[in-house]
Amino acid sequence: MQIRIDDLAGAGIRALLTEHLHDMHQLSPPESVHALDIAGLLRPEITFWTLWSEGELLGCGALKELARDHGEIKSMRTASAHRRKGVARMMLQHIVAEAQRRSYTRLSLETGSTSPFEPARNLYRSFGFTYCSPFGDYREDPNSVFLTRAIDPA
């Protein structure tokens, strides 16, 4: 598998992100959907990666710089055909390593609080993320949970 920075111009990644946004709106009320659209992911404070194998798009993930020492995981998504194959784990390892390379001291994220998001929450907890209060521009929301972890120096 290969992870590379993506410019979001390809039809495959656009389709995966459209599916992601659609699913988020199916699972959460509009005010609780914090997934970014293409324009949001193209902002300069966000680095976006895709994960590929033999020319096939497996998944994606992004890292948003909140402050010089604090990053946020955004847009983690595995293509439906590749779920439960380690794609999300590999992308999360990459993002955590990049946060460490950037000398962040903290990495945080928001995800859903309902049962469809339980696999994601389990993955994040397996990487040492713990529950925390809302950070950045987030507010308390019964449909969201917030997780964070310290990043060890490189």
Strand content: 25-35%
Helix content: 25-40%
- According to DSSP, the number of beta strands is 7
Low-pLDDT parts are none
Mass-distribution shape: globular
Gyration radius, rounded: 15 Å
Output the strand order for the largest sheet: 1-2-3-4-5-7-6
Roughly what is the average pLDDT, rounded to an integer? Answer: 95
The biggest sheet, with number of strands, parallel, antiparallel or mixed sense and barrel status, is: 7 strands, mixed
Distance between the termini: 24 Å
Helices and strands: which structural class?
alpha+beta
Number of helices: 4
Short description:
With 154 residues, the protein is an alpha+beta fold. The protein has helices at 11-27, 38-41, 87-101, 118-126, and strands spanning 2-5, 46-53, 56-67, 70-78, 106-112, 130-131, 144-150.
Characterization of the model:
- By secondary structure, the chain is of the alpha+beta class.
- Strands 1-2-3-4-5-7-6 form a 7-stranded mixed sheet, with helices on both faces.
- α3 links the parallel β4 and β5.
- The radius of gyration is 15 Å and the shape is globular.
- Helices cover 29% and strands 32% of the residues.
Give structural attributes.
7-stranded mixed sheet, single chain, 29% helix, 4 helices, globular, alpha+beta
How are the SSEs placed, and which strands pair?
Elements lengths: L1 E4 L5 H17 L10 H4 L4 E8 L2 E12 L2 E9 L8 H15 L4 E7 L5 H9 L3 E2 L12 E7 L4
Parallel strand pairs: 4-5
Antiparallel strand pairs: 1-2, 2-3, 3-4, 5-7, 6-7
